[in-house]
Design a protein that fits this description.
Strand content: 15-25%
CATH class of the largest domain: Alpha Beta
Number of domains: 3
Number of helices: 20
Strand order of the largest sheet: 13-21-20-14-15-19-16-18-17
Largest sheet: 9 strands, mixed
Shape: globular
CATH superfamily of the largest domain: Carbamoyltransferase, C-terminal domain
Mean pLDDT: 91
Number of strands: 21
Radius of gyration: 24 Å
Length: about 625
């Protein structure tokens, strides 16, 4: 660890519970996590409470939730751990600006006041926030290195006693990727790749150039890639990047602007690719499709080389992954199929939110907690956020006069499955909220994967997002092999695999003229979740992680003979996944969803009162 504050460092009683709060903040996806005696008790991103997508502010609401969930709102915790080292990161930023002077002056002048006003005072912000919440101050405040936090988040919750660890993102303090090894209760970093050479920043540069927002739109670029061809891959290797055999990269900075500027790429980059960056919300052309395809191919090649290097360095049979690039499920699927390692385990909150978990676990096991492996993993299905009782939900519905139907336990799954089989689109609030960017059945919108119109319908009338974006299938774990070429579990929707040839329907040889026509082609018996390259981003559902969600799909199978449903996150474009019943009802009424399930209660759209759009989203969580 390191960079401790000068004050109060008291060793907790060895026999007492060890209560640790992990925090990430100030860049994107701020989050808080509570770990007690090495067990993950609660975890949530700040965006779910403030309703600001990718909220970067200090996670006061998430902190309060975690402490409340753990019964520690009045007692406090022993340690608070921050996910990186602000002073080290600030040193890197200053050195970078000085090396670019005077070119980086505008960026320097915009960045330094932000650091001086807050980021350099993270320890004090932690104590000030806890004081605001009326929580006793911690005995110590610690700071972990960024990639150590990612590595710990990947290994400690995994089902492996020992494993290789690979972390890849934009940049932490100085590292942009790392290879490590986990064994028992220890995590060790063996090799790092230094800034400014970064696979994550390279992918973000293409995200920016193709008209999507950096740190927000990388998954859109991944979804766009199958529509194009890797026509620029050789050009990228010739001009932009040198890929070493160990997977490390060297980026030609004459084409990039992120060192001292306010954009990711410069005019040389634009000239290389035939014109300026695509403006957001304008038509997507073949150039953007081919650029997306090209950088995805490059990403896969680099990840495979990094993995092979990790295999040689560690000699391990299993691999754990984290960091923002670990959310690239296409590259993950390629890694799985190459069988470099026997098994993969990917942290479901692989980005900076998950680093809040990693730093807390790192502190716990560094202090002597004994790690116990769980056969599935110790993430509890990543269902670590707020849950709402039927009593709370009923009170909310009665207070607002919203008509509803109480579903007895035996009727709950069959009724929902019947609605899905009848082509209804259903918003689902089921138990605790997911931690991480994927909806896994807790805050999901579900539908019939057999419907050829469902993808377009959900994109345009429910999600209000780009029509090319694919939806993910949720499939009974034991039936996954019937539909997909997948020989591993994928409980957190982080692996892409091909749809089985036996259920494919081959479209014409000529590509349609527009993206919308292309999307609406029927490519398999489950067309709503089959991407244009016959791939799917899969969630395998088992009764251990979520018995109720498993029950819905199992009942759907009984009705239709099909074990697959659509599962997409319960939100609309530009907004976070819903958290509370009020969030869910608002989203339900603002879209063309047919039904809403809140715990044991079913709401039908046609029975609801007319929606008044001047109704406001709820206030911040702690200010209710």
């Amino acid at each position: 660890m390191g960079n401790r504050p000068e004050s109060r460092t008291v060793r907790p009683d060895k026999d007492a519970e060890m209560k640790i709060l992990g925090i990430s903040a100030f860049y994107h996806d701020s989050a808080a996590v509570l770990v007690v005696d090495g067990e993950i008790i609660a975890a949530a991103q700040e965006e779910r409470f403030t309703r600001k997508k990718h909220d970067q502010n200090f996670p006061v609401n998430a902190v309060y939730y975690c402490l409340k969930e753990g019964g520690l709102a009045e007692k406090g915790v022993d340690s608070v751990v921050f996910y990186d080292k602000p002073v080290t990161k600030f040193s890197r930023i200053l050195k970078t600006y000085f090396s670019m002077a005077p070119a980086g002056l505008p960026s320097f002048l915009s960045a330094v006041p932000v650091w001086a006003a807050g980021k350099l005072w993270t320890g004090y912000e932690i104590e000030r926030t806890l004081n605001r919440l009326g929580v006793p101050g911690p005995k110590e405040v610690l700071f972990a290195e960024h990639h150590v936090s990612h590595a710990a988040s990947a290994f400690y919750p995994s089902p492996f006693e020992h494993a290789a660890i690979l972390t890849v993102d934009g940049v932490g303090e100085w590292a942009t990727a790392s290879i490590g090894k986990g064994a028992g209760s220890s995590v060790e970093i063996l090799k790092e790749m230094p800034f400014p050479h970064s696979l994550g920043l390279l992918y973000s540069a293409f995200t920016y150039f193709c008209g999507f927002r950096v740190n927000f739109g990388e998954y859109k670029l991944m979804g766009l890639a199958p529509y194009g061809e890797p026509a620029y891959a050789d050009l990228i290797k010739k001009e932009l990047i040198d890929i070493k055999e160990d997977g490390s990269v060297w980026l030609n900075q004459k084409y990039f602007n992120y060192l001292g500027g306010l954009t990711m790429t410069n005019r040389r980059f634009a000239k290389l690719f035939g014109g300026p960056p695509r403006k957001p919300e304008t038509e997507i052309t073949k150039r953007e499709m081919d650029m997306a395809s090209s950088i995805q191919v490059i990403t896969g090649e680099i990840i495979l080389k990094m993995a092979r290097c990790a295999k040689v360095l560690t000699g391990e049979k299993n691999l754990c992954l984290a960091g923002g690039v670990a959310l690239n499920c296409v590259a993950n699927g390629l890694l799985l199929r190459e069988k470099i390692f026997d098994r993969l385990w990917i942290q479901p909150a692989a980005g900076d939110a998950g680093a809040a978990l990693g730093c807390a676990l790192y502190a716990a096991f560094a202090r002597g907690e004994k790690r116990t492996c769980v056969p599935e993993d110790s993430m509890k299905g990543s269902r670590l956020g707020p849950g709402f009782s039927d009593a709370d939900i009923e009170a909310y519905l009665r207070k607002n006069g919203y008509p509803c139907h109480l579903l007895p336990e035996k009727e709950w799954a069959p009724r929902i499955a019947d609605l899905a089989a009848k082509q209804k689109v259903i918003g689902l609030v089921n138990g605790r909220m997911e931690f991480g960017p994927r909806a896994l059945g807790g805050r999901s919108v579900i539908g019939d994967a057999r419907s050829p119109k469902m993808q377009s319908l959900m994109n345009l009338k429910i999600k209000y997002r780009e029509s090319f974006r694919p939806f993910a299938p949720s499939v009974l774990a034991e039936d996954a092999g019937k539909y997909f070429d997948l020989d591993a579990e994928s409980p957190y929707m982080l692996l892409v695999a091909p749809v089985k040839g036996s259920i494919r329907r081959h479209a014409g040889t000529q590509h349609p003229q527009t993206l919308r026509e292309w999307v609406n082609e029927t490519r398999s018996e489950i067309p709503a979740v089959t991407h244009v390259d016959y791939s799917a981003r899969i969630q395998t559902v088992d009764p251990v992680r979520d018995k109720k969600f498993y029950g819905i799909i199992n009942e759907f199978k009984k009705l239709t003979g099909c074990s697959v449903i659509i599962n997409t996150s319960f939100n609309v474009r530009g907004e976070p996944i819903v958290c509370s019943p009020e969030d869910a009802y608002t989203c339900f009424m603002r879209t063309e969803m047919d039904c809403l399930v809140l715990g044991s209660f079913l709401l039908l759209k046609e029975e609801q009162p007319a929606w008044q759009e001047d109704k406001k989203w709820r206030e911040e969580f702690i200010l209710d």
